[in-house]
Hints:
It is a single chain. This protein is mostly helical. It has a single domain, classed as Ferritin, core subunit, four-helix bundle (Ferritin). 83% of the residues lie in helices and 0% in strands. It has 5 helices and no strands. The chain has helices at residues 6-34, 38-65, 75-88, 94-126, 132-165. Helix 1 packs parallel to helix 3 (75-88). The relative contact order is 0.15.
Amino acid sequence: MVMQTPQDLFFYDLCAMYDAEQKLVQALPVLARECQIPQVSEAFLEHQQETIQHVRNLEQCFQLLGRQPLTLENHAVAGLKQDHDAFIEQQPSSQMLTMFDIEAGSKSEYLEMAAYWNLINTAYALGFQSCVPLLQQNLQQEEAAAKKLATFAQQYGQHQQQQSHA
């Protein structure tokens, strides 16, 4: 794909998010299985269902644009998976794996939020208003997931701190 116009970049970024969301649909059940806190596992699985809807919303954006998504890799999300796999090789305790997974989820959410903010701003600027509500829905769910993970991280971190002092 030749990058000549802002529309080309918007389409490229949309395809990158499409790849990211598809990868995350696969990754979230893994994180859910690894977590030893039922609430966190449940939150990962709930967000997987939202992420499936994110994929559909992006597919609807492609439809509205009259284009088929390109197959390309979102290297940022691929990097997060590589970080996870490298951490697993360190044979972490279940508590440390849970903490890592919460942090990894948070990193992913903030990455996704930045991408959606950019997509929304660009969609407005380029006159692709029909995509904006779909992108905003995804953004709002990413923000809610990030907030939930931040709460879990704080609670679990405090619990681990208390355990280490006991």
